[in-house]
Structure formats: structure tokens, C-alpha cells
TrEMBL record:
InterPro entries: Frm2/Hbn1 (IPR033877), Nitroreductase (IPR029479), Nitroreductase-like (IPR000415). Pfam families: Nitroreductase. PANTHER family: FATTY ACID REPRESSION MUTANT PROTEIN 2-RELATED. Keywords: Cytoplasm, Oxidoreductase. It comes from Fructilactobacillus florum DSM 22689 = JCM 16035. GO terms for biological process: cellular response to oxidative stress. SUPFAM superfamilies: FMN-dependent nitroreductase-like (SSF55469). GO terms for molecular function: oxidoreductase activity. This is Nitroreductase domain-containing protein. It is found in: Cytoplasm. GO terms for cellular component: cytoplasm. The keyword Cytoplasm applies.
Length: 199
């Protein structure tokens, strides 16, 4: 499979199951390699990753449901959200949580003051690249995933439950698992609205 075919294979998969042939350790090692090789500004390596499987994965989505229930406008609205989480994210094999180490960013801001106002934005670019690299690596293994953002709603509870350092700022949650149904057809914005070649 070439790079472009792999890009097309990487889709948001919501029908997740827990029937994977890979072990948690194998998946963890793939995530580590993908994040390690992802570029960051000034080689800051500010991205942190935590892979949850088994009961830890289940606990993350229980925490998310608890936090969402607390702010739900109605039981009917919460039920819709609850169904989505229980039938998709929680039913998967695991979740990759991606963080930015804010201590790294603060040090860069102090050490290179001329670029201080840019380092947070650049860290977000680094996080996005790492996120995509992990997602592509999972897709290459035939593992389905989607990108979720329940942060900052769940941040404090996640820090307590999983003993996450306070300087790690949660940026994304990526539930993954076996692909139980394919992704929907993807629509594309017309090329002439997105791209330009200037010579």
C-alpha cells in the first residue's frame, strides 16, 4: 500500500469492536514509534501519549459519561450522547490519549523569547502531526479509530484516575478497535476552492 492509499484507508471509524489480533504491547510500541518520529518545532518533542486498554479504556469513557451527564441539558440529550459513547468509543479495544507537555513550551518561551508567542501554536502543529501519524499507523495495521475532543471537560478526572502529570495538557482522545462497519462515503470540497499553484 502506498502513502496515498494509506491516507484513503485512514478514516473516522465509529463502529468499533474489541476483536484485534494485536496485543496491547504491540499497539503501544507502534504508538511510541509514530510519536517519536513525528516532527516538532525546535525538536521540542512536546507530545506525550498514554495508551489505555482493558479496564483503563473502559474507565476513561465512564469518566467522560459522568462529566457529560453533569452538564447535560436534559436526560434525552444525555441519552443520545451516552448511546454514541457506549456503542462506539467504549466498545473499542482501547484509546490513545495525546497530551502537550506545557513545561516544555514554557521553557522554550523563556529560552527563545523572540519566538515566545509562537511556541504554543507550534506545539499544536506538532500534536496534530503526531496525532495523524498514530492514526495512519493504526490504519496500516487494519485498526479503526476516530479523533475525539472531550478535553478540557474530562481533564481533571483523567489526571486523578490515571496519575497524569499536571503539566500534561490533554489535547485529543483516539478510541480504536476492530472495524465493525466501514466509514461513510467521504465528500470533498472542490479542488479550485482549496488549492492554488503559483509560478
Amino acid at each position: 500500500m502506498n502513502f496515498y492509499e494509506l491516507q484513503q484507508q485512514r478514516r473516522s471509524i465509529y463502529a468499533l469492536g474489541n476483536k484485534l489480533s494485536q496485543t496491547p504491547e504491540e499497539i503501544f510500541n507502534v504508538v511510541k514509534k509514530a510519536v517519536r518520529e513525528a516532527p516538532t518545532s525546535f525538536n521540542s518533542q512536546s507530545v506525550r501519549a498514554v495508551v489505555l486498554t482493558g479496564t483503563a479504556h473502559q474507565k476513561l469513557w465512564e469518566i467522560t459519561l459522568e462529566q457529560l451527564h453533569a452538564i447535560a441539558k436534559s436526560e434525552a440529550a444525555f441519552q443520545k450522547t451516552s448511546d454514541k459513547i457506549n456503542n462506539s468509543f467504549k466498545s473499542g479495544f482501547g484509546t490513545v490519549m495525546l497530551f502537550t507537555d506545557t513545561d516544555v513550551i514554557k521553557k522554550l518561551e523563556a529560552d527563545v523569547p523572540n519566538y515566545a508567542e509562537n511556541f504554543y501554536d507550534w506545539s499544536e502543529q506538532g500534536l496534530g502531526i503526531a496525532d495523524y501519524a498514530v492514526w495512519m499507523a493504526l490504519a496500516e495495521m487494519g485498526i479503526g479509530a476516530s479523533n475525539q475532543h472531550y478535553n478540557p471537560l474530562i481533564d481533571e478526572a483523567v489526571q486523578r484516575e490515571f496519575e497524569i502529570p499536571k503539566n500534561w495538557r490533554l489535547r485529543a482522545e483516539m478510541p480504536f478497535g476492530s472495524i465493525e462497519a466501514p466509514a461513510a462515503t467521504k465528500d470533498y470540497v472542490a479542488d479550485n476552492q482549496r488549492f492554488r499553484l503559483i509560478k
